Amino acid sequence: GDAARGKEISTTCAACHGTDGNSTTAEFPRIAGQHEDYLRQALTDYKAGKRRNPIMAAQVESLDKRDIADLSAWFASQKGLYFKR
Amino acid sequence: GDAARGKEISTTCAACHGTDGNSTTAEFPRIAGQHEDYLRQALTDYKAGKRRNPIMAAQVESLDKRDIADLSAWFASQKGLYFKR
């Protein structure tokens, strides 16, 4: 996917997952540095209802294959932050 | 949870997710540095069948609350590696 375009359309995702995908609340998973294919598969499964989450179901409704690929590329290319426990 | 004990019981998890949780195959999500509560919630939901995945369902069957808490602590405390795309 095209990470640059992914960044442009990632504003809604950032609301929960954090601008670079390093969400600061445990309720929303960190997606920074996650595998691009894993993210694409998860989004595709949310869209197909194969993976169920009420919040995500609403988010992916308006996404097409290209958006899913680009968003996956963007968040996969972010650095996974490490918080000292 | 107790990350040290989590490390001891994480061998089976490491088979797919990688010794420190940085899986190298897109099929298995990276869990290194993921939120501890998120991991604990995910494992608990897999065990309760609220989150469905055939592989994970089998894995969590033998885990009790303490195992789930300790495994979550261990993988959450790992550094999320960042692979240059």
Determine the N-to-C terminus distance of chain A. 33 Å
Global morphology of chain A: globular
CATH homologous superfamily of chain A? Answer: Cytochrome c-like domain
Percent in strands of chain A: under 5%
Main sheet characteristics of chain A? none
Return the CATH architecture of chain A.
Orthogonal Bundle
Low-confidence stretches of chain A: none
Q: What is the oligomer described by this structure? A: homodimer
Topology order of chain A in helix (H) and strand (E) letters: HHHHH
Walk me through the structure.
The structure is a homodimer of 85-residue chains. Chain A has 85 residues and is mostly helical. Chain A has a single domain, classed as Cytochrome Bc1 Complex, Chain D, domain 2, CATH 1.10.760.10. In chain A, 53% of the residues lie in helices and 0% in strands. Chain A contains 5 helices and no strands. The mean pLDDT of chain A is 91. At the A-B interface, helix 3 of A face helix 3 of B.
Topology:
2 copies of one chain form a homodimer.
Chain A: H1 3-8, H2 11-17, H3 36-48, H4 54-60, H5 65-76
Helix pairs in contact in A: 3-5
Defining key terms:
homodimer; mainly alpha; Cytochrome Bc1 Complex, Chain D, domain 2; 5 helices
